[in-house]
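Q: Hi! First time doing this. I have a protein sequence and I read that you can turn it into a structure. Is that right? Here it is:
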Amino acid sequence: MERQITIPSGELELAATLHYPPAERGSDRPRRFPLIVICHGFTGNRIGANRLFVKAARAFCEKGYLVLRFDYGGCGESTGDYGATGIGSMISQTKHVLDYAFETDCIDPHRVVVLGHSLGGAVTLLTAARDKRIRTIVLWAPVMYPFNDIVRIVGKKTYETCMEYGSADYLGYRLKKQFFDSLSAYHPYQEMNNFTGDVLLVHGTADDVIPVDYSFLFQKAFWMRSEGQCDKEIILQADHTFSSGEASEQAIAKTCGWLLNQDRRKREWYGWSI
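A: Yes, that's right. Below is the predicted 3D structure, encoded as structure tokens:
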């Protein structure tokens, strides 16, 4: 079952879709489901390119996960002006989405996953570094250097126009100076040690937006932590949005397989220590 909802976040109203796993037959006992929250990327939405997040959410649901995908303020069907805020606001919005999920009283608080794509990957890591409710993160083609990466995407001319006139148009989004200021204020790569949970990185070799090398660098840095493991899946010929049918199927299948394996491993080792 899928339900369209609205989640308040300060003055914003975030449009979201909640996916419920199939009901178990012959069981009247209320269940607590593992949760996956999906965070889209720069100027994206909860549907995703070529319906990537819709397909992913439905696949995760079939595996028993409660899935919540949402539009950041000013994107998709949410209210607000995307270019007038920045990463700080996105972190707050992600936390408010988690607040909503926890209030449903049907999630397992020990099995909370946040999946972020591109800039949403950077926001996911930054949120996880601040919010201990997040136990696992999945980063699809994650941004590593928000300011440099987004300026490269929008183009130097757009950035210079914004700095000179206070705002600039990018694909219909009015990006303001405070948006770029926020990008330079946050450094995901420097904050990863504050997250002690498990991490999966998924990236395509044909990504010409965010270099696949980032995921190799991220993994090496995650390995240096005292707690938590990090795995990586590289998909041959996949672009930034895993736009081909084969690429999206692989990204989703590899993520599902990894999450289920993590659950199984933790169940088998629960209560054991060395």
